[in-house]
Amino acid sequence: MNIKLNWFRIKNFKGIKDLIVELNGKNINIFGNNATGKTTTMDAIRWLFFDKDSNDNTKFTIKPQDEDGKDLLYLEPTVESELLVDGKPLKLKKSMVEKWVKRQGATEKVFDGHTNKYWFNEVPCKAGEYKDKIDSLINENIFKMITDPLFFNTKLKWEERRKILLEISGDATDEQVIASDESLSRLTEILNDRSIDDYKLVLADKLKGLKKERDDLPPRIDELTRSLPNEEPDYSAIEVELKGYKDQLATVEFLMTNATNKANKITEKYQELGKLKSQLEKVKEKIKSESGADRKKLLEKKSELENGKFILQSGIRELQLEVQEAKTRLESNSKTRQRLLEEWRNLSDKNLEILSEEFEVGERATNCPTCGQDIPEETIATEIGTLRVKFEQNKKIKLADNIALLEKNKESGLALKINTEKIKSDLELAEKELSDKEFQLENLTISINALDSEIVRPIEEPDYTKYQEYNELFDKIEQLQAELDKPVEDKSSELLQKKADIQLEIEARNRVLNVKDEVEKKKARIEELKAEEKRVSTLIAELEGHKFLLEKFTVANVFVN
Q1: Domain range spanning residue 344?
Q2: Could you tell me the keywords of this UniProt record (predicted)?
Q3: Does residue 104 lie within any of the structural domains?
Q4: Rounded to an integer, what distance in angstroms lies between the CA atom of residue 389 and that of residue 370?
């Protein structure tokens, strides 16, 4: 591709107001005193092509400035040129445009920075599109080498200079070096279209990462191994015990459900009794309907109050049962709390006991029982040191186990406290409601007694037994009342306590089995880490082989060239 510069124009760029230079595809020399625009001209050309100045800076002042060093507004730095590409004209243009915006509620626009605009062959385009088109036209480094005589020697890295010189003068390729030594043939597959230098970087990075990974694995394996308990309980026996307690819990819960169902049935019977009595009163009122309007109204009012009284009594009985049950649960929780406190004291004492344990050497033989020679002090010291390390490890494990039990005790106590506070709150509400209902019942009874004193009997009480409807209702009431008068055995408090005791046994065994699960997970993780250590070591050995081949390649490269 043949590219020539036809002309370029610079406007409002740094100190240049307006400069047009016509080259007509020829070379020119630009001379001048200091600060007359020579470097600025080069900066403008570089900015047009690559958005940089002549020193490769991307951030530099472009706009003209006043005497105080502040940018002058309402000016648009613009650089444009015309190239001849293979004889065809191509125009490039780039401008820095001011942004003026009008804020919400403001009356005038304010300055809000700059933005660049691009034209490629007079077609407006975005920054990315413009860069891609310039890159397809000419390589940035090539442009700098042919426009800046100092660029190659002072600004290119030595590796890049060497690469360029080798491209010009010629050098043996990696393939030629590999072909010169049959033992290097595997490098072709290993390199996988990468250069020797690139693969050296890849290899060094991989080996560094793998060696760090390998060195990190043994401490992790050792830490997990030391965290395993020295002895493990008979988990199978504990699982059998756990199943037995769960079966007992299911039986107790079944009995508690039956007791609740019985209580519900008794409540239903009381409600039915109230309905029957209400119906009986209505039948009596019907029979006495001819006794007079006033007396009938009084009786209706009394029947209404009696029905309300019965409903209140039923509610009172239910609340009394609820209060009794809450007190029973509080008593049970109090016993559990005392047991947890005792357990906490024992565990705390055990903590102090463990902490107070001291390593004791005891009397040891100082000579060999076989040959009678004195045992070296270093041997005795090493043996004592080993025993001291084992003692400290066992002490830490026992202390950690005991602390875990203390934490579990604390959690159980906190849960018990929350449950107790909830029961007390419910009990307070129930007692208040019971007091309110008892007060209502007292007032209602007073009202009924007042009605009784007002009721007169102008005629003799009818013989209700002559009426079939009355007799049927009366018999039903008598039968239902007889059933309700039978004593009922209340085992709710006993069942609640038994349930709490069984749950504590279940929790104790679950804690042991949870430790089993944790131990199994740690053992599995240890095996995983060992397999990973083996895999990483194998990879390192394989890459060390690659490294050896690269060293042989370096030697062969010297002889080939």
Answers
A1: 235-359+387-457+465-490
A2: Coiled coil
A3: yes
A4: 28
